[in-house]
Amino acid sequence: MSETSKVVLVTGATGGIGSAVCLRLANSGYSLILAARDISKLQAACAALERPGLPSHRWISVDMSSDASIASFSHELATDGTVLDGVVLMPPQMRPTGDCQPPADMWRQLFQSNFIGPLELLKSAISTMRPDPSQGRRAKIVIISAITSVQALGNYATSNVLRCAWLAQAKTLAFAMGERGIHVNTLSLGGTLWHRSTCAPPRLA
Questions:
Q1: Nearest 5 degrees, angle CA 59-CA 86-CA 176?
Q2: Closest residue by Cα to residue 200 from 20, 4, 6
Q3: Edge-to-edge strands of the sheet including 86-89?
Q4: Are 184 and 132 in contact (CB under 8 A)?
Q5: Who's near 69: CB < 8 A, 6+ residues apart?
Q6: How much is the pLDDT for 199?
Q7: Rounded distance, CA 106 to CA 48, Å?
Q8: What phi, psi does 154 have (nearest 5°)?
Q9: For residues 135 and 47, what is the distance between their CA atoms, to the nearest angstrom?
Q10: What is the CB-side half-sphere exposure of residue 82 using CA atoms within 13 A?
Q11: Among the listed residues 62, 66, 76, 77, the one whose alpha carbon sits nearest the alpha carbon of residue 8
Q12: Which of the two ends of the chain, N or C, has the fewest CB atoms closer than 10 A to its terminal CB?
């Protein structure tokens, strides 16, 4: 790490996967901005990550289903002068459903909370990045899309659709922003069983 710690935004930071990602990044010397809905959980998560001699962390509450909440998040991120070096974006996970033809209102709700909202948040995060490839400064976006990127899951009909949307969006962003020094990848974790009291969290490549 350089004298100035790199800053990474992690959404879904208080969930199981989010907590593991935050722990790994914090122990590696990154300064984190944790984002999730529950303020009390965010406060507890930040406190649990603090280590002597390592960078401090902070949190911003956000509800992906609310345009007003995302606008407030974006304003706070923009006005405090934060320069992000990376984003780990975890769109809210959808509940199991076998209904491959849900009503239109459900589709609108799902696209808002699981795609449109997170994408708006990502746009605001990207606007704070200052990559400079000529100086070796690059930024990184990792989208944790789901368990699998390609296989249709029988009890996750709506997830099958939205996972494809995120994969296409990631490809589009990677193509458009690669030359600027912003790298974009997706991560599908597969089925992972581990006990947090005895096992280390999964390592991110």
A1: 130
A2: 20
A3: 58-61, 31-36, 7-11, 86-89, 139-146, 182-188
A4: no
A5: 61, 62, 63
A6: 47
A7: 37
A8: -60, -35
A9: 34
A10: 28
A11: 77
A12: C
- Cβ-proximal residues to 90 (8 Å cutoff; 6+ apart), any chain: 10, 11, 12, 15, 17, 18, 143, 144
User: Tokens for 83?
Assistant: 């320069």
DSSP, res 33: E
**Positions in the chain short of pLDDT 70:** 1-4, 94, 96-97, 146-156, 190-205
pLDDT given for residue 187 in this prediction: 85
Q: Amino acid letter at 58?
A: R
Between CA 90 and CA 78 the distance in angstroms is 21
Q: pTM of this prediction?
A: 0.85
Tell me, what amino acid is at 135? Q
Q: What gap in Å lies between CA 73 and CA 85, rounded to an integer?
A: 18
Q: Are 80 and 135 in contact (CB under 8 A)?
A: no
Q: What's the CATH number of domain 7-188, 3.40.50.720, 1.10.10.10, 3.10.129.10, 3.50.50.60? A: 3.40.50.720
